[in-house]
């Protein structure tokens, strides 16, 4: 890099090609102080959340589709005293739609030893028929079952 000579012609001086960052640091420190002073003065927005007693919860009794290990299918309403009624596997969709109202959810309760493909097939059939409130019933106790895993 060629040196730049002064107009007097004596000695050479090199140009600095660095950015002086000291003014930027000064500005940032001033902004930091301003934010630290004004932050406690800002009032947080208050949100009034509803309490538990204000909302009325209406639960629809779900329709339970039971699939046993041997492939038998039964349908029952999950209310006290309701007994499962065995149905043919082919008439699952018709039986469920006959008992269904728009508010009624459908849950599938499959035995732990049922191959998962059968459960998915039943879910697919029910979804294809237009049933949107569909779920799986599981044991929430966390207790281990004696079920063997499904074959692949």
Automatic annotation (TrEMBL):
GO terms for molecular function: transmembrane transporter activity. The chain crosses the membrane at residues 21-42. The keyword Protein biosynthesis does not apply. It is a single-pass membrane protein; Single-pass type II membrane protein. Keywords: Cell cycle, Cell division, Cell inner membrane, Cell membrane, Membrane, Protein transport, Transmembrane, Transmembrane helix, Transport. The keyword S-adenosyl-L-methionine does not apply. One of its GO terms (biological process) is protein transport. Its main location: membrane. It comes from the Bacteria. It is found in: Cell membrane. GO terms for cellular component: plasma membrane. Belongs to the ExbD/TolR family. This is Tol biopolymer transport system, TolR protein.
């Amino acid at each position: 890099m060629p040196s730049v000579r002064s107009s007097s012609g004596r000695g050479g001086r090199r140009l600095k090609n660095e950015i002086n960052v000291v003014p930027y640091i000064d500005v940032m420190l001033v902004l930091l102080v301003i934010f630290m002073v004004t932050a406690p003065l800002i009032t947080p927005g208050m949100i009034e959340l509803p309490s538990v007693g204000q909302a009325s919860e209406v639960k629809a009794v779900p329709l339970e589709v039971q699939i046993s290990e041997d492939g038998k299918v039964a349908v029952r309403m999950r209310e006290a005293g309701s007994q499962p009624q065995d149905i043919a596997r082919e008439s699952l969709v018709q039986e469920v739609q006959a008992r269904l109202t728009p508010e009624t959810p459908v849950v599938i309760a499959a035995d732990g030893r049922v191959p998962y493909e059968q459960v998915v097939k039943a879910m697919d059939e029910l979804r294809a028929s237009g049933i949107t409130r569909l779920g799986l019933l599981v044991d929430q106790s966390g207790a281990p079952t004696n079920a063997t895993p499904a074959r692949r």
